[in-house]
Amino acid sequence: MRLLRFGSGLNHCGSVTLHTRRLTLRRFSRADTEAMFRNWASDPDVTRFLLWRFHTVPSETREVIEYWLSQYHRRDFYEWAIVPDGMGEPIGSCGASKVWGKKGVWEIGYCLGKQWWGMGYGTEAAAAVIDLLFEKVGCRELIAMHELGNDASGRVMLKCGMQPIEGKIQLVRSDHGLLRCRVYRISRAQWAARCPGQQFGAEPAQP
């Protein structure tokens, strides 16, 4: 895969639908409220490594989805529902946000319902988003973080070609208190040399 050349700006495309070998990554809808609440948002085992606490009622989940819906008009907003082929409802989410103060650097994040841990879905979804952000958007570098002790999330990052920044521990405020997180990164040049898109076959859906 050739390394695309970009100017000073990024070619944002928003949360376009992505297809991988086993998954569809699409925008959330209000109809996803119950599935999101049931499959991961209400599970403390899932949210203990995230920035927010588990939801106790579906209205909390609906509020989050309503916010995402209000942002989808922005071409620099990236948040996807992870939907396995043939299932029809999301089992997790994957997104990306700008790292402020660092030009062309974005952070990716993901979470999956506990029932689907260890099946490679997190790696497949994250790799698709990485492909999009480097190949289509033109990001210079991507980072990701996980709380110390969440080794499974670190393995996802490694499988996507990211490497930990030696000695870098980031303190992050969350609803659980202050988290100590390990930081991983991958540059566009490293991604292009690795060609993860050939492995996972992520392709934006045609409009």
Describe this structure in words.
The chain has a domain at 18-142: Aminopeptidase (3-Layer(aba) Sandwich), CATH 3.40.630.30. 31% of the residues lie in helices and 29% in strands. The chain has seven helices and nine strands, in the order ββαααβββαβαββααβ. β4 and β5 form a beta hairpin. α1 (33-41) crosses α3. The longest helix is centred in the middle third of the chain and has 17 residues, at 121-137.
Could you name the key traits of this structure?
7 helices, 9-stranded mixed beta sheet, Aminopeptidase, globular
Indicate the percent of residues in helices: 25-40%
Radius of gyration (CA) equals: 16 Å
Strand content: 25-35%
Low-confidence stretches: 1-8, 196-203
Q: Would you tell me which CATH topology of one domain applies?
A: Aminopeptidase
The strand count comes to 9
Strand order of the largest sheet: 7-8-6-5-4-3-2-1-9
Categorize the overall geometry.
Answer: globular
CATH architecture of one domain: 3-Layer(aba) Sandwich
Look at the helices and sheets and give the structural class: alpha+beta
Largest sheet: 9 strands, mixed
CATH superfamily of one domain: Gcn5-related N-acetyltransferase (GNAT)
What is the N-to-C succession of helices and strands?
EEHHHEEEHEHEEHHE
The total count of helices amounts to: 7
Span between termini: 23 Å
Under CATH at level 1, the class of one domain stands as Alpha Beta
Pfam family, one: Acetyltransf_3
Organism: Candidatus Faecivivens stercoripullorum
GO molecular function, one term: acyltransferase activity, transferring groups other than amino-acyl groups
Protein name: GNAT family N-acetyltransferase
